[in-house]
# Entry
Amino acid sequence: MHLPGGEVRTYGGTMPTIAISIHDWPTLRRIALNPYLAIGEAWMDGALSVETGDLYEFLALCLRNADEAPTHWL
# Structure
């Protein structure tokens, strides 16, 4: 994951390799608060781009990890 400030964070370590860029901090905040809505909006607005892999692989990875996510971060 490429963050708006240029920092790169790596998660996992298994295939497939997916790299995304989030282009601004407000988008990252929206994704953290409501990922199911904000990821699609960010993609459509150009605030999130898939650098390695494609959109379908990124969404498949998100769905695989959705089962492990807590129901709400609060």
